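Re: export button greyed out
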Amino acid sequence: EPEVTQTPSHQVTQMGQEVILRCVPISNHLYFYWYRQILGQKVEFLVSFYNNEISEKSEIFDDQFSVERPDGSNFTLKIRSTKLEDSAMYFCASSEAAFRAFFGQGTRLTVV
Amino acid sequence: DQQVKQNSPSLSVQEGRISILNCDYTNSMFDYFLWYKKYPAEGPTFLISISSIKDKNEDGRFTVFLNKSAKHLSLHIVPSQPGDSAVYFCAAQPTQGGSEKLVFGKGTKLTVNP
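Workaround output, generated via the alternate export path:
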């Protein structure tokens, strides 16, 4: 069964450093998303991406964040200058239409 | 701002019995609802969904009921199995508003005892 894959599974970074989280969505899907879950809290929407542009973003997704689809298969989330509060599980998701998203296994980001 | 609420953080049931997980929402714009299951160290796995034009959707052991007037939905698992033990998230989406964003509840941890 096709699945969304994310790398790395765990990333530790120094505060202030840039990180790039990578995702390979399901191949025939057109909508791509990033969500995050801070420990003990809800899964929160960050951004959606369709037709090579951001279609929606939350207030969390400020200028420190950016997304890119550099080629036909990868979808990346970049955090320019990480803060301690960016520590969370980051989930990539994709969907064929604008609903019923399928999630990857997540990347645990730890900012120290 | 809890637009989607799962008021029970945990639920414990015996194998073979019915599990009922509840979810309430406040935003009238939500018109598509989903349930996801999540095991530790994994991403949410899609289980079942329901559109607001329906009041019930069934898929094998899983049934979702939607009560629009009460802004309430529930997931029934019958019979429950130990492998169903996981955290269950309710999520809602305002598709008519053109939004692709899912709004999640905090989750209910289900434990099915053998």
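The first strand of chain A starts at residue 5 and ends at 7. The button fix ships in the next patch.
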